[in-house]
Amino acid sequence: MRRLFRRARPRPDTRPALMSVAALMVLLLPLLLMTSSAQKLTGIALGVPGPGEDLPPEPPGAVERVVVTRTASGYRVEAAVRTTDVRAQVGDTEQRHFEAADLAGLQEVLLSLKRLDPERERIVLVPAPDTPAEEVVAWMDAVRAGPEGPLFPRVILSAEAL
């Protein structure tokens, strides 16, 4: 049965919903602006060296680079030590050379370099072409830790001196 008179239904009032959204924005927008900053949103570039490229530099310290080369008479340590000049910057280094006859002597030399720069962790090893693998592994273990504690835990093997 149909109705004779249709009553118009009133539309629902949307003002309370709009007011609640506006109130939410009034509260959240200042809170969001106060708690976030542009400094927190910046990123750090990540670069991985490709074949033939240099390794990324380590944090600055007194010793910038340590290279140990296997020679016929023992080991040769080449260290790039930052100059003591007040105006010295990264790259202003003195090349220092040390000789060691055996692994114990090598550890003593490396310990003296570690005392200069305790934060330095990277060392480059350059074995001779005819050095057996067992000797290279023993050499790597000797430069990682000495009798007085850790020396240079990050070891890089290289075919030639840098």
Shape estimate: elongated
If you compute it from the alpha carbons, what radius of gyration comes out, rounded to the nearest whole angstrom?
33 Å
Q: What fraction of residues sit in β-strands?
A: 15-25%
Mean pLDDT score, rounded?
79
Low-confidence regions:
none
Task: Output the strand order for the largest sheet.
Answer: 3-2-1-4-7
What do you see in this structure?
By secondary structure, this protein is of the alpha/beta class. Helices cover about 30% and strands about 25% of the residues. It contains three helices and seven strands. It has helices at about 15-35, 105-115, 135-145; strands at about 65-70, 75-80, 95-100, 120-125, 145, 150, 155. Strand 5 and strand 6 (about 150) form a beta hairpin. It is elongated. The protein starts with 14 loop residues before the first helix and ends in a 5-residue tail after the last strand. The mean pLDDT is about 80.
